[in-house]
Amino acid sequence: MAEDNNEGKKKVTVEFKKADDFKQAYAIGAVGGHSPYDFRIGFYNDSQKGFGQQSDSRVIERTLETEVILSPMAAYELSKWLNQHIQEYENLFGPISRQQAQKTEKNENKSDSSELQGYM
Which residues does the chain have with pLDDT short of 50? Predict the structure, then answer.
């Protein structure tokens, strides 16, 4: 007969609330790194600022929206959570593709924002 491991344990309830200064930010990409102490993930958006001095170059302005600093354990748990939810998403909607839209002669001269959405 198995022992009841719940003897003497108290039930823990977690209540979520948003901080007074809570805000949401949409991001098209992320950059970051780690040290022995923490993981840092900065989330950014890109916008086309204009053209460079040469007519064949563009200037992209990358705006860092927010940075999240995680302990190694929290980063590990986040990776597990993300992998689980990506798998659930792909089961419902199909594989997530990182391929950029193919340029055709028809849209060759148009600004294709898909070029801006790469991750570092």
Answer: 100-120
Nearest CA to 42 out of 51, 53, 50, 34 is that of 34
Distance CA 108, CA 17 (A): 48
User: Which residue in this structure is represented by tokens 């689980």?
Assistant: 84
Question: Are 51 and 61 in contact, with CB atoms under 8 Å apart?
Answer: no
This prediction's pTM: 0.64
Neighbours of 44 (CB within 10 A): 19
Let me know how many helices (H) and strands (E) the chain has, helices first.
1, 3
User: Which residues lie below 8 Å from residue 76, measured CB to CB, with a gap of 6+?
Assistant: none
pLDDT tens digits for range 2-22? 555 667 789 999 999 999 999
CA 32, CA 30: separation in Å to the nearest integer? Answer: 7
> Beta 39-51 vs 58-70: how paired, if at all?
antiparallel
CA 86 from centroid of its chain's CA atoms: 12
Q: How many CB atoms lie within 10 A of CB 95?
A: 8
